[in-house]
Amino acid sequence: MKNFILLMGLILITSFALEAQTTTKIKVAGNCGMCKGHIEKAAKEAGAVTADWDKAAKVLKVSFNASKTSTDKIEDAIAAAGRCHSCCWL
After folding, report:
1. CA pseudo-torsion sign 53, 56, 59, 62
2. At what angle do helices 33-45 and 71-81 cross, to 10 degrees?
3. Terminus-to-terminus CA distance in the chain, angstroms?
């Protein structure tokens, strides 16, 4: 029984380690409030678990599973999404 409990604990710890989240900041230009939703949506569609863009700092904070996506893929998705309208980023 003791070995079974240890084995289950090891399995749980391993599964959490495999799903570890990477958090990083990406510089993303934008000019209006609509940009926030546009940028965050593109990041999440590229695999980000969380995405929070700070308009004043022009920085996107993202968390993602590195085995499923990367910073480059998220940046490419944001660039490919284009601007939300003419006054905005890119």
Report:
1. negative
2. 130
3. 60
How much is the pTM?
0.73
**In-domain check, residue 38:** yes
Establish if 30 belongs to a structural domain.
Answer: yes
Range of the domain at 70: 21-90
Q: What distance in Å separates the CA atoms of residue 62 and residue 75, rounded to the nearest whole number?
A: 11
- Establish if 67 belongs to a structural domain: yes
Per-residue pLDDT of 8-43, as tens digits, reads 666 666 655 556 789 999 999 888 778 888 899 999
More confident site: 24 or 84 = 24
